[in-house]
Amino acid sequence: MNLSDQYIASTYSRLPVVIVKGSGCRLWDSEGKEYLDFVGGLAVCNLGHCHPNVVKAIKEQADALIHVSNLYYTEPQTKLAKLLVENSFADRVFFCNSGAEANEAAIKLARKYTKEKNGNERFEIITMVNSFHGRTIATITATGQEKFRKGFEPLLPGFKYTEFNDLDAIEKAIDDATCAVMVEPIQGEGGVNCPSDNYLKGLRKICDGHDLLLIFDEVQVGIGRTGTLFAYEGYGVQPDIITLAKGLAGGLPIGAMLAREEIAKSFSPGSHASTFGGNPVAAASALATINTILDNGVLGNCIEVGNYLSQKLNELKQKYPFVKDLKGKGLILGMELGFDGGDVVKECLKRGLLINCTMGKVLRFLPPLIVTKGEVDTMVRILDDVFSGL
Which residues pair with 244 in a beta bridge? Predict the structure, then answer.
């Protein structure tokens, strides 16, 4: 820890633990202490840690080919693109390395497509208050939280913010410069805020009426997190562009932007690129991850255990008046407290439980999608013990 603090840039407030090993929903530190993981790498480890299917795919691909330029074709990348297209609304995939890069690609594509289609200066994208879209200069500008933008001014032009779940605000924000609306189906970093009934369908209708693109940022909530492979499936609405990352490759860095053919063709050779995008090892890992999620009952488990976790958290809400709200879907759940949740996270860590707090007061639960009801019971007992001591 001292070496890390000495040599690594101070961009994280790390908890005092060195993780050295993982399996399923469990992690172990350098002292041999075991932890039950309800953070899941922040929605990355959807199959848990070191899932055998993922490990096997990584090892086999690393033995064959680790990297080659995107000037050439590779099999894992092509197979992954086919799998994503066949299981989504999209026709084309662009691969990159992170959610921020995927959102950058979506922003660039939306502007380029709109300009080519309309021949004018429509470039503005509407995003939501409390949204989070990444850490690059463009994606922090798109992010509707001032704390992420502070100190990095001047920001890029071309973004405006409206309240989440407010269709009237969207209508009022649209003008002659608007080209797209960008939204997370569930705001994860913003406090696990879920859409109201018909909000996403309402956005689709508004975008269609004004000839705007609808972009879904599913970096955190995609790849099974809500009980369907993509979150949009559960809301009965299709976007024009979707962005993915976190859970896509079972723990390896990868990002993807998916789009309909008419829109995707605005990206021609040389218009956008990513050196490591669709890397053979990451793509092989993603193939194993998605196939396992689709073929091994993982989505059903997400729904069943997600409902069970929600029920158990609601019992804690009834028991402790300082629990103000419960929200979420599948296995992305938030518990809003009446006070800062940082100390709760630290006390859980002491008891061998990893949870996360966002927006200061919202405990966020992002366990692997393979989590069991027994592990939920263990988590709730620890959390109950912590709450009782407050």
Answer: 256
pTM for this prediction: 0.97
The tens digit of pLDDT for each residue in 183-238 reads: 999 999 999 999 999 999 999 999 999 999 999 999 999 999 999 999 999 999 99
Q: Which tens digit of pLDDT belongs to each residue from 167-182?
A: 999 999 999 999 999 9
* φ, ψ dihedrals at 135, nearest 5°: -115, 0
- Among the listed residues 112, 246, 312, 361, the single catalytic one is 246
322 is catalytic: no
Query: Residue 88: CB partners within 8 Å, gap ≥ 6?
Result: 229, 230, 242, 258
What is the full DSSP assignment across 269-321?
Answer: TTSS--TTTT-HHHHHHHHHHHHHHHHTTHHHHHHHHHHHHHHHHHHHHHH-T
Are the beta carbons of 167 and 206 closer than 8 angstroms?
yes
User: Per-residue pLDDT tens for 22-77?
Assistant: 999 999 999 999 999 999 999 999 999 999 999 999 999 999 999 999 999 999 99
Cα–Cα distance for residue pair 272/244, rounded to 1 Å: 17
The torsion of the CA quartet 168, 173, 178, 183, rounded to 10 degrees, works out to -60
285-307 pLDDT, tens per residue? 999 999 999 999 999 999 999 99
Domain 2-51+297-388: assigned CATH number: 3.90.1150.10
- Residue 120 above 90 pLDDT? no
Average confidence score pLDDT of the chain: 97
Residue-range domain boundaries for the chain: 2-51+297-388, 53-295
Question: Do 2-51+297-388 and 53-295 agree at the fold level?
Answer: no
Catalytic residue among 89, 94, 123, 132: 132
The reply to whether CATH 2.40.30.10 applies to domain 53-295 is no
How many helices and strands in the chain, by DSSP H and E?
14, 15
Active-site residue (options: 217, 240, 267, 312): 217
Task: Verify whether residue 94 is a known catalytic residue.
Answer: no
168 a catalytic residue: no
